[in-house]
Amino acid sequence: MSPAACAQQNPAPVTPAKPIAPPSIAPAVAPVKPLKAPFPYVQGTAYHILPETTSEESGYFSIVEGHNGRVYVGTSKYNHNGYLVEFDPKTQVQKIVIDVHKVNGLTATGYAAQAKIHTRNFVGPSGKIYVGSQEGYRNIPGDVSVYPGGWVMSYDPKTGVAQSLGQPLPGKDGAQGEGVIDVVADEARGLLYAVTTWGEDKKAHWMVSGIDGKSWREIGPLPINYGTTLMSADGRAHVITADWRVATYDPKTDKTTIRDIQIDGKKWGDPKNGAIPVWQMAPDGQRAYAIYLEGDSALRSFDFSGEGAVESKILGKMLEGKSFDHRSSLTVAPDGRVYALLKTENETGFGNFALHHLTRYDPKLKKTEDLGALTVTNPKFYDFRPEAQRPGASQYTFSGYQKLPDGTLAPASVHQGLIAAKDGSLHALILYPYTLLKIEGATGPTGTRQKVVVLSPSQQYANFALRSVADVENNRTEISRVAEIIAARHLQGGTIKAVFHQQSLEEELTGRAGGMMGASVGWKDRAPELDKHNVALVGWERAPGAGDLDQLKKLHDDGTFIVGFGPRSMPQLAEHVKLCDAWFDTLQGDDDRVVTLPDGRKAGQGNLLINMLNSWALTGEVVAALTRKGQMPTMWKSWMWPDGREWSDKYYNKAQFHDDFKIAPIPAGTLSKAYLEEIRANIWRFGVAQSASVVRAATMIAAESKAGRKTIVATQGHAPWRYVGQGEDARWATLSDFDHSVPAQMAGQEKTPDRALVLRLGYHGLHKDEAALLAKKKQRVILVTMQTPRAEFQPPAGLAQGSIDMGWKYGDAAVAIDGYPIQILPPSGVMQIVAYQSINAEVLARLPHLKTP
């Protein structure tokens, strides 16, 4: 399409209009009394589409569900390239499956780049995904490059192979070619259909080719701008023409016929207001539904049967209101009901910006209904602060959302595209930032509101943990980039040390099974002058201590490469962030409680969990980067193994790299992906198998609290003693670090009250000496551990009143490397947090409000 037409739905960065101001996402003023929205909410979970695939945090209506249940989204990266991203709703992981330039062997940048995938993506019976590419904007001073024309491509999820299917209308003799706005594949007949965008002749073209894309030719009259090919059940292809008729191509005869459109008995004509109809085929393959791109909310139907005029009817308005904007967000669900997103003015006084309503038409009942305005259930999915945006990103990239007066996050700027999935969910695209919004429970019986699934506190925390795993996996490109820098410094002799400053991440990373042994402590005969290559890892799950900033300044002045982990938007960390060379953000801000209790209170802290996931994924990528340089670092083996101490004695403080194992180069992303997949599986198992046990434990702890007694949390391991009792859990928990191998800790547990309730947050089983002490004190025990084959760690029968299994594999390392005798990267610290915060959230849900002055 023309840049002018395109700018209507995605403002061009060359002359941007005034963006929605940052106050749209600022906290709402506290009301005198609780506010209630005068319209229902349609709630969705937001997922930030891979930021490396966009330049302006934007895209178009390029979205489709594959036969495999995954969602495929086209992106826009102006002056660079276009991408197709696959989103897996089960794991919430995204990956690039089509790199337009790579698939087609292209390198051009600027206006000549294939800057976006703008097609309404199509899925063939084979499961292949078909898309097309298009130009961006001429917005680089002095750029006189010529756009050569768009390409048609396919991606096969079964094989993971992307294929180039040619150019429908390339430029000739240096002239500009035309982009591709629509692709449809008739695999049964071996045909591809494409509609091109307006070229220099201000016209679009309707094209057909064999399925291999090698024989593109024009087959009919000029289609309307944004034209879409629909295939009816009889195999004929249809498109709306520029003069508001229907062109029908019959592959049997290779002929195109033109038919008028009769709407309620009258010939349909150009409404003269620039309106663009968007249509979708009904499941019967005979009827289609259409709505204008903007300006009107009326739904129309079309009947392709017969040879005469196409009969059409106006079915009624989908929504009452003003200034409608639809943006191609029309979808027909498998049950035949029609859904449409409509942006309209907010005339209710509840909020200051437009609302995006989800509407529905039921063809059986001949009824339309407004299901409500889109809102977001996980507002921390993105850091909206202007100062947190990517360098060089457009001013639009943080302005697409608003906070309603009750604090609810809702889209404000632009939606793009909507699909109804086979599982009953809906998926919408929202701009600024580019977001996939998954809506569940809105496709129930006509006349009912969205069914909101109420999850228990522990289920909510498990879901948060799964989303966090996906967020880290989706950020592996940045993790690998930082890992390359760290590996290079380590090869030059620098250490990789966790900074000790009274927070938990330092404990988790130091001396851990599956971690890098020589990274932090150095190695034999290491020269002091190598310190200029050092790397420091520093994390915050809560506000920094008084000496943290001075410690960072000293490291910075010494030339240390500092990697920070934590909530970037926490005000107390503002100066600390500036001193870090890289930062992995938790996106949780001041308040990292991620669970909403039935009475509206918040619980369940998340910062440390995300910090651990990021740091272990980074560790894995540092190891992989080193193998690509021909080195394998020495790694810790758990002392739970009989020969663990022997392994440590052999390598600890003696060697930076192995000279006794040669490991093949490991590709970037491999180890972090394997680790995160293991963590994801553990969380799934925990959420499914341990939910009832968590509730029983929380019930016991809450009863103890109501009786005026705190539960002793007897911790084992590296990090728990740093976080237990440091947050909201202090209301019911008191810390006792407890390990049979540390006499002082055994003496400390001896001083705890007899008959107290003890939550044992451990590792593997319970050592016989620990069990004997607990039994001696007649303490009631809830075991949070995992099974072990070692006899001395088997809990005696009858000791535990409750048991929760965290489920990782024995030995506390999860990722195997070919040719290396031990596994690396531990899941235990992460799963201890998941278990503990799940229990914590359930306990707090059972305790009454605290009275505050």
Produce the secondary structure layout:
Elements: H1 3-7, E1 41-48, E2 63-65, E3 71-74, E4 83-88, E5 93-99, H2 100-104, E6 116-117, E7 122-123, E8 129-134, E9 152-156, E10 161-164, E11 180-186, E12 191-196, E13 206-210, E14 217-218, E15 230-231, E16 237-240, E17 246-250, E18 255-259, E19 261-263, E20 266-267, E21 277-281, E22 287-292, E23 298-303, E24 310-317, E25 330-332, E26 338-344, E27 355-362, E28 367-376, E29 401-403, E30 409-411, E31 415-420, E32 426-430, E33 435-439, H3 457-474, H4 476-491, E34 496-498, H5 505-509, H6 517-521, E35 535-539, H7 548-557, E36 561-566, H8 574-579, E37 582-585, E38 593-596, E39 602-605, H9 607-627, H10 644-651, H11 670-689, H12 691-706, E40 711-715, H13 720-723, E41 733-737, H14 743-750, E42 757-764, H15 768-776, E43 780-786, E44 800-805, H16 828-845
Parallel strand pairs: 1-28, 19-24, 34-35, 35-36, 36-37, 40-41, 40-42, 42-43, 43-44
Antiparallel strand pairs: 1-33, 2-3, 3-4, 4-5, 6-8, 7-8, 8-9, 9-10, 11-12, 12-13, 13-14, 15-16, 16-17, 17-18, 19-20, 21-22, 22-23, 23-24, 25-26, 26-27, 27-28, 29-30, 31-32, 32-33, 38-39
Helix pairs in contact: 3-9, 3-11, 3-16, 4-9, 9-11, 9-16, 11-16, 12-16
